Amino acid sequence: MKITFLGTSAGEEYPGIWCNCRNCKKARIWGGKNIRRNSCAVLDNDVMLDIGKTAHIQIDRFGLDLQKIQTLLITHSHRDHLNTHTFWARQMTPGYDILSTEEKKKAASPNFSLLPELSVFGSKKVSETLLSDGINYDDPRWNIDFNIIEPYQKYYSNNLEFFTLDGNHNDGDYHSINYIITRNNKTFLYLSDTGWPFDKTFEKLKNYRYDFIITEGTFGFGADSTAHLGFEKNLRLLDFFNRNKLWKNNPDYYITHMSPHWCPPHDEYSPIVQKYGLKLAYDGFVLEC
């Protein structure tokens, strides 16, 4: 199993697009791992977790191929996790890929490449967001198989098994969806966006043993948040996994989705969290197990 982190920032990116605070200034000067784009990850080249506004840029940057993605798991409809324009650019009228060059000149289409079917999993709110932005996923132009999912259910797609969790993060009238993902006898948790998990989520987490976990850490050393996790809650989650012996081997906990206002730049924050048994993901980091 291989996870490539395409992006590891919260919604404002890191440095913040319009921000010039201490952390954002340092990130711009230091560059490298201190620069983060919207959180997104790819599993084994064919599964994507979220598809925000920078995902298509980052997947090219790190040498992967968006056209090879067969399964897309979406946590919620906020625009740093779901960019509907990326779906718009996927559309192609059936048969346009075999038009002659002269015929293509007369046809209006953002795409002239035949793509494999994309299996998309998301909440009813994600479905509503796509449809309201004109992405009629039942239209063959998009070649999308959209699946509306509910919390605390098991689903399958392309040699992938995943169990859904109710995220403690409002998305309109709904919550975000988090995932316990299993493939080839490897299991990991993807917990973003969410505040402190619900009691039922904790009970479901105990049903699995994990090779590693990935959670958000948006608020870092900032004030407590009901919608996101920070450093103290990251430590409490690590303690929960340790106390309940939920690891297959040694503890392996990675933090993503970091805000520049509350999380120091990578070069400062990484050695701090490592002292407590946590690891910072960064854009382009590849996790293999």
List its traits:
single chain, 289 residues, alpha/beta, Metallo-beta-lactamase, Chain A, seven-stranded mixed beta sheet, 8 helices, 22% helix, 24% strand
Word description of this protein:
By secondary structure, the chain is α/β, with parallel strands linked by helices. It has one domain: Metallo-beta-lactamase, Chain A, CATH 3.60.15.10. It is built from eight helices and 14 strands. Strands 6-5-4-3-2-1-14 form a seven-stranded mixed sheet. Strands 7-8-9-10-11-12-13 form a seven-stranded mixed sheet.
Give a quick precis of the structure:
The protein has 289 residues and is of the alpha/beta class. It contains 8 helices and 14 strands.
Describe the SSE topology.
Blueprint: E1 2-7, H1 22-30, E2 40-43, E3 47-49, H2 55-61, E4 71-73, H3 84-88, H4 101-106, E5 118-122, H5 124-132, E6 144-148, E7 154-156, E8 161-171, E9 174-183, E10 186-191, H6 199-205, E11 212-216, H7 231-243, E12 253-256, H8 266-274, E13 279-280, E14 286-288
Radius of gyration: 19 Å
CATH class: Alpha Beta
| Share of helical residues | 10-25%
Q: What is the spatial order of strands in the main beta sheet?
A: 6-5-4-3-2-1-14
- Biggest β-sheet description: 7 strands, mixed
Low-confidence stretches: none
What distance separates the N and C termini? 6 Å
CATH H-tier superfamily? Ribonuclease Z/Hydroxyacylglutathione hydrolase-like
Envelope shape:
globular
Structural class, from secondary structure content? alpha/beta
Q: Give the CATH topology.
A: Metallo-beta-lactamase, Chain A
The number of domains? 1
CATH architecture descriptor name: 4-Layer Sandwich
Strand tally is: 14
Strand content: 15-25%
Q: Taking all residues together, what is the mean pLDDT?
A: 97
Number of helices: 8
Assembly state of the chains shown: single chain
Order of helices and strands: EHEEHEHHEHEEEEEHEHEHEE
